[in-house]
Amino acid sequence: MNKNEISEQNSEKKRVALASLFAAFLLTGLKLAVGLSTGSLGVLAEAAHSALDLVASAVTFLAIRLAALPPDATHTYGHGKIESLAALVETLLLLLTCVWIVTEAVRHLIHGQNPVRLSAWAFIVLLISIGIDFSRSRLLDKVAKKHKSHALEADALHFSIDMLSSLVVLLGLAGVWLAGFFAAGTLPAAMLGRADSLAALVVALIVATVSLRLGFKTVNALMDAGSAGDLKRMEALVEAIPDVLRISRLRLRESGKDNFVDLEIILPGHLNLTEAHDVTLEAEKAIQSLLPGADITIHFEPETQPQDFLSKMRNQAKMHGLDLHNIEMTSTGQATFVTLHAEADEDLSLFAAHAKAQDFERAVRTPQYEVLVHLEPRRITESCARLLPAGAQTEIPELTQAVTQCLKDHGGTGEFHKIRLLKAGGQLKLSFHCTMRGSENLRDCHHTISAIEKSLLRDCPELHSVSIHAEPG
Question: Which end of the chain offers a freer environment for a tag, N or C, measured as fewer CB atoms within 10 Å?
Fold first, then answer.
């Protein structure tokens, strides 16, 4: 978007915000004059509502002027979130109005109120207000959607509420007028006579409901909660690109009318730099088709080959004083699960050995590989790694009870998590994390873990292997 288009966009937003400000000033004065002359609580509630709308419109106009400022050294993403802050201020002002309206309406319903002096001007002003609110809410909504302005959207919503609440107050005054056709003291006269206060309560309820909805939306915008629908559509578009193996990170944030996309994709390792760059350009075009003008940052990572990952694990194991064996890797398409046995000095406490295992896992972890370490005391021999065929994660609810009981039978707490059952090459592999006493030495802990594994293999003959990751409790 060039500078002329941005300037024209900002000018249009300022024009509609200024027109809204003048309309709010006019309606506030008319409603206040009629409310004081008739004594109608409903009309005075509308006047208070319009007065706060006047303040809100002024806040909106100021916010739009500030949001148009270009990015600077302090605000590198621009000043667009000022519009969201303005929308939040408007929401809080409306909720304060609701509190005052409800308080006055309840007081009048309980203690009575001065009789409403009906006047044709009350009906005329309310009808004028409905007409003005209808036209400006449509205009504001159109410009808000066109330029994705939260502040103008809040204004449009307020004036839509104004139109509805004015209609409710109009019905309340009509009820007071109808009460004059019934004898004083009768039930119809009493009910219709309270229609003005009841109308004020309805106005407060409408305003509070819609204001809270707008408030949640504004807070989400301030907290960078991207649209779930947009994220899913972006994910589908990017994953449809032939050389994109998968998406490892996708984030979306909004700042006023601007969208910022942060994307990380996994590409085949055989692509050269030019080919990888072409894929990122294609991904950028796909996102631009959904969010035109978005500021997009794309980072790509090569697919890590299993043999490369094995070398990385072995190097890191040596650095952390661990020996590895029984390494098995099972792919589910989205990720690869790695189970392995790591040997450490048998005199280490479980606290110390587990800390080593955690440091090792952090060093080798990638978006593609999830590693589960089975700790045991160091042995002399070391077996070779074995690569199983691609498999899939299987449902495991039937094993939960067996695992819990087995842990309790061996003096454990029965607490475990990250339970996973993988099927590959016709073999079922069970793995999970469980809690053990942290002060116990690694030799005794491994003896207990081995007994639990043997017990599970005995009780569940369909299992080919069991890998347990012990953690200090």
Answer: N
Q: What distance in Å separates the CA atoms of residue 5 and residue 2, rounded to the nearest whole number?
A: 5
Provide the token pair at 341.
């046995």
Which of these ranges, 75-79, 335-339, 394-398, has the smallest mean pLDDT?
A: 394-398
Percent of the chain with pLDDT over 70: 71
Q: Are residues 440 and 291 in the same domain?
A: no
Q: Coil, strand, or helix at residue 9?
A: helix
Choose among 39, 22, 43, 19: nearest CA to 125: 43
Q: Please tell me whether residues 326 and 292 are part of one structural domain.
A: no
| Number of domains within the chain | 3
Domain of 404 in residue numbering reads as 306-472
Q: Are residues 128 and 64 in the same domain?
A: yes
Query: Helix, strand, coil: what percent of the chain each, to 5?
Result: 60, 20, 25
Residue-level pLDDT at 278 = 92
- Give all strands of the β-sheet with 246-255 in edge-to-edge order: 246-255, 258-267, 295-302
Give me the amino acid identity at 156.
A
Single-letter amino acid code for the residue at 235: E
- Domain check: are 342 and 377 in the same one? yes
The tally of CA atoms less than 13 A away on the side-chain side of residue 148 is 13
Residue type, 74: T
pLDDT value at 381 more than 50: no
Q: Which residue has the tokens 């060093």?
A: 363
Q: What is the pLDDT of residue 280?
A: 92
Look at residues 302, 318, 333 and tell me which one is the last residue of a structural domain.
302
What is the pLDDT at residue 79? 66
CB-based burial, 87-113: b 16+ in 10 Å, e otherwise: bbbbbebbbebbeebbebbeebeeeeb
Q: Are residues 357 and 462 in the same domain?
A: yes
For the beta carbon of residue 304, count every other beta carbon within 10 angstroms: 16
Q: Looking at 39-149, list the stretches that DSSP marks H as alpha helix, in order from N- to C-terminal side.
A: 41-67, 81-111, 120-147
pTM: 0.44
Angle between helices 81-111 and 150-179 (to 10 degrees): 20
Residues 312, 213 share a domain = no
| Domain boundary residue, one of 302, 321, 346 | 302
- Is the pLDDT assigned to residue 317 strictly greater than 80? yes
Q: In angstroms, rounded to a whole number, what is the distance separating the alpha carbons of residues 417 and 468?
A: 10
**Does residue 318 share a domain with residue 336?**
yes
Looking at the chain, the whole-number percentage of residues with pLDDT higher than 90 is 5
Is residue 384 very low, low, confident or very high in pLDDT (cuts 50, 70, 90)?
Answer: very low
The CA-based angle 421-395-331, given to 5 degrees, is: 50
3-class DSSP state for residue 192?
A: helix
Tell me the two tokens of residue 271. Answer: 């692509």
Residues 173, 99 within the same domain: yes
